[in-house]
Amino acid sequence: MSTNIHQLSLFLENRSGAINEICQTLKDAAISIRTLSLADTEQFGILRLLVKEWEAARDALSKAGFVVKVTDVTALTVEDRPGGLAAILDALAKHGVNVEYMYAFTFGSGDKAIMVFRFADHGKAMQALKAENIDTVKEMDLFK
Questions:
Q1: CA angle 45, 46, 49 (to 5 degrees)
Q2: What does DSSP say about strands 44-51 and 68-79: parallel, antiparallel, or unpaired?
Q3: pTM listed for this prediction
Q4: Cα(138)–Cα(49) distance, rounded to whole angstroms?
Q5: Residue 88 CB neighbour total at 10 angstroms
Q6: What is the CATH number of the domain that holds 59?
Q7: How far apart are the C-alpha atoms of 96 and 121, rounded to whole Å?
Q8: Which stretch of DSSP H or E encloses residue 93?
Q9: Which residue, of 71, 104, 120, is where some domain finishes?
Q10: What CATH number does the domain containing 125 carry?
């Protein structure tokens, strides 16, 4: 089974109400946002979303006039303690894996947090994670 998780990315004009239009579109389609990340500049932003029904969300947003890009990301469990994330990043760096970006998932479990990663080279990252015995979270498990 694939460890890829489908993320929706949307470019937004940096103006009042832009994010609300996306949220209203998803609300009208009865799609819940599980987590998101927003990065902005003076003129535009990039909204990254994880939703369980990613295909329906993509279709609803596209129909509403938004340009939606689907990107594969990977979720990892991270020890929820000082140095937990550093241990993951050290293991990836040891194998020369470049992290393009990452953000926290809104749900963890017990002493584990969940982080979402986008790697420059997904295959190389998967090999490194396997070599270091670092577990990925499958899409079906992420949205339970």
A1: 135
A2: unpaired
A3: 0.84
A4: 16
A5: 21
A6: 3.30.2130.10
A7: 10
A8: helix 84-94
A9: 71
A10: 3.30.70.260
Cα-based torsion angle of the residue sequence 23, 27, 29, 34 in order, rounded to the nearest 10 degrees? 70
Say if residues 126 and 133 touch (Cβ distance below 8 Å): no
- Which distant-in-sequence residues (6+ apart) come within 8 Å of 101 by Cβ? 37, 39, 117, 118
One-letter amino acid for residue 87 of the chain = A
Classified as helix, coil or strand, 64 is coil
Residue 31's nearest CA partner among 1, 3, 64, 2 is 64
pLDDT tens for residues 72-101? 999 998 988 899 999 999 999 999 999 999
Query: Residue 75 to residues 20, 23, 99, 131, 142: CA-CA distances in angstroms?
Result: 26, 23, 13, 17, 8
Tokens for 13, please give them. 């004009």
